[in-house]
Design goal:
Blueprint (H helix, E strand, L loop, with lengths): L1 E6 L2 H12 L3 E6 L2 H4 L3 E2 L7 H10 L4 E4 L2 H5 L2 H7 L4 E2 L3 H8 L1 H10 L7 E4 L2 H10 L4 E5 L8 E4 L2 H12 L11 E5 L4 E9 L4 E3 L4 E2 L2 E3 L3 E4 L4 E4 L6 H21 L6 E9 L5 E7 L6 H8 L5 H8 L14 E8 L16 H5 L9 E6 L2 E4 L2 E4 L3 E9 L2 H13 L23
Parallel strand pairs: 1-2, 1-4, 2-3, 4-5
Antiparallel strand pairs: 6-9, 7-8, 7-9, 10-11, 10-16, 12-15, 13-14, 15-18, 16-17, 18-22, 19-22, 20-21
The structure holds adenosine monophosphate and glycine.
C-alpha cells in the first residue's frame, strides 16, 4: 500500500514509522527529517486542502492518514472522500467534536454522556454569572481550536473573570475565543482512551497516560503533552468496560442519531473521579500526541488494514494485537516551551540513543522527531516539542529506565524534559 501521512510532528513520525515497518510505502506532507528517513516528503502544509487532494489523486495513493485536527476541522477528509480517495479521519461534521467545545458539550449532554455542568458564554458578564452559578472553581475554554492552549483552570472567580475577558474582549485566541465554555472544575486523575471507528463499530486501542503539565509533579502550565506511558496503570479492566458502556457506546449511538459518518480516531479525554466514575472532558478527532508514540510502538500488528478498513466503513473483524512490553515516551522540549520556544539549536546524540537496548536485549529505543529540521546539513530544533524519546521494555519501570538512559545521550541547548514520566502510581491522583 502507498500511504500519505498528513502532518509533521511526533505523532505523524510514529504513524509513518509503524506503517513503514509493516512494509508499506510512506509519503508525508510535510513530514519531518525523522519521517524523511522512512519515505518521501512533499512540502505541502497540512491545511492546504486543495494541494493535498491534488497530490493524493496524482500519486494514486491507497490511503491518506490525517494526523492533526486542523485539516480535519477544515474539511480535508470530505474533500478527499469526494474525490474517491480513502481517508482515515472524520469529515468536518465529526471533527466538530474537537473543533467546537460548545458543540461537543451539547453532544455529551444530548446523548447522556457524563460531563461537567457548563454554560456557553458570549460576554464577560455571562461568564461571571456562570462562574457564580457553578460555585467559583471553573474551567474557562475558548470554543474553537487553540492548539491546546485555550483552556484555563481557575480556582478563584477573579481568575475565571480575567480568563474570560482575555478571550472574549482582548481577543486572545482570535475567532476561536469569541465564545467560551465555562464549566465546573473536576477533581480526579486523567485518562486518555482512544478508539478507531468506521462509523458503526469501534475498537479500543491500548491505553496510555499523558503528562500535560510542563514540570515534574504536574506543576506549571499545560503543554501539548510532555510524555506518555502505556499501559496506563490506572486503567483497570473494570474501568475500561465502564468507559465502553458509558462513553463510547452512547457516542456511537449519538453519532448515528445526529447523522455523522465518523471514520477515524475518537480520542476520549476523561477525568476519573474519586469514586471511579469517568467524566468526559473532551473528544479529540485524531490520535493523541504523544499518546500515539507509545500506543503505536506497542502495536504488534500491521495498522493499515484497520486504518483502511475504518476509512472504507468496514473495520476488520480481527482486533489488533499488542506488544506485552510497556512503552514510555519522554518529550524533549526547547527552552521557553510552552511559551515561545528558542529554535535553531543543533541536536546531537540521536543515533547513540537509538542504539541503546536493555541489558537483557529486550528493550528498544525509537526517537520520534517532532520539532526538528535540517539546516545546512545539520539537524536543528524547529518547534517547542523537539523529540519524543520512546522506549519499549519488559514493564513500565524498565521502559522508563531505558527511555531516560536514551534521553541522557541526547543534547541540545536549553533542552528540558520531565523526570517523572510513567512514575505515577496506580492509586495516585493528578489533581
Ligand atoms: P480539554 O481541551 O477540554 O481537554 O482541556 C485540556 C485540559 O484541561 C484537560 O486535559 C484537563 O487537564 C483540563 N481540564 C479540562 N476540563 C476540565 C475540568 N472540567 N476540570 C478539571 N480539569 C479540566
Ligand atoms: N496529548 C494530548 C493531545 O494530543 O491532545
Amino acid at each position: 500500500m502507498h500511504v500519505l501521512v498528513v502532518g509533521g510532528g511526533g505523532r505523524e513520525h510514529a504513524l509513518a514509522w509503524r506503517i513503514s515497518r509493516a512494509g508499506h510505502r510512506v509519503t508525508a506532507a510535510p513530514g519531518n527529517p525523522g519521517i524523511g528517513r522512512l519515505g518521501e516528503l512533499v512540502p505541502i502544509a497540512p491545511t492546504d486542502v486543495s494541494a493535498l487532494c491534488e497530490e493524493a489523486v496524482r500519486r494514486q495513493v491507497d490511503l491518506v492518514v490525517v494526523g492533526p485536527e486542523a485539516p480535519l476541522v477544515a474539511g480535508l477528509a470530505d474533500e478527499l472522500r469526494g474525490q474517491g480517495v480513502p481517508v482515515f479521519g472524520p469529515g468536518a461534521s465529526g471533527a466538530r467534536l474537537e473543533g467546537s467545545k460548545s458543540f461537543a458539550k451539547s453532544f455529551f449532554h444530548r446523548h447522556g454522556i457524563r460531563t461537567a455542568p457548563f454554560f456557553l458564554c458570549e460576554s464577560a458578564a455571562e461568564a461571571e454569572r456562570a462562574t457564580r452559578e457553578l460555585g467559583g472553581r471553573v474551567v474557562v475554554k475558548a470554543d474553537g481550536l487553540a492548539s491546546g492552549k485555550g483552556v484555563v483552570l481557575c480556582d478563584r472567580a477573579e481568575d475565571a473573570a480575567s480568563a474570560a475577558r482575555d478571550m472574549l474582549e482582548a481577543g486572545r485566541f482570535g475567532a476561536a475565543g469569541r465564545s467560551v465554555v465555562v464549566e465546573q472544575k473536576l477533581n480526579g486523575r486523567e485518562l486518555s482512551i482512544m478508539a478507531i471507528t468506521d462509523g458503526q463499530r469501534y475498537e479500543l486501542l491500548a491505553q496510555a497516560e499523558d503528562h500535560k503539565a510542563v514540570f515534574d509533579g504536574d506543576q506549571g502550565p499545560n503543554t501539548g503533552g510532555m510524555g506518555a506511558v502505556s499501559p496506563a496503570q490506572h486503567a483497570t479492566e473494570e474501568l475500561v468496560q465502564k468507559v465502553r458502556r458509558e462513553i463510547f457506546d452512547p457516542t456511537m449511538r449519538g453519532l448515528a442519531k445526529d447523522g455523522i459518518d465518523y471514520r477515524g480516531v475518537l480520542y476520549a479525554g476523561l477525568m476519573i473521579d474519586e469514586s471511579g466514575e469517568p467524566w468526559m472532558l473532551e473528544y479529540n478527532c485524531r490520535f493523541g500526541d504523544p499518546e500515539a508514540q507509545v500506543v503505536l510502538a506497542r502495536l504488534a500488528t500491521d495498522p493499515v488494514p484497520a486504518l483502511l478498513g475504518a476509512a472504507q466503513g468496514a473495520l476488520p473483524a480481527e482486533p489488533a494485537a499488542w506488544d506485552e512490553r510497556a512503552c514510555t515516551c519522554v518529550v524533549l522540549a526547547a527552552a521557553g516551551y510552552p511559551g515561545s520556544p528558542e529554535l535553531g539549536d543543533p541536536l546531537r546524540g540521536i543515533d547513540a540513543a537509538e542504539g541503546l537496548t536493555e541489558p537483557e536485549g529486550a528493550g528498544e529505543v525509537i526517537v520520534f522527531h517532532a520539532g526538528t529540521r535540517e539546516h545546512e546539513g545539520e539537524l536543528v530544533t524547529s518547534g517547542g516539542r523537539v523529540l519524543g524519546v520512546t522506549a519499549l521494555a519488559g514493564d513500565v519501570a524498565a521502559s522508563r529506565a531505558l527511555a531516560y538512559r536514551a534521553v541522557s545521550s541526547i543534547t541540545f541547548r536549553g533542552a528540558h524534559f520531565r523526570g517523572d514520566i510513567g512514575a505515577r502510581r496506580a492509586g495516585g491522583t493528578s489533581t
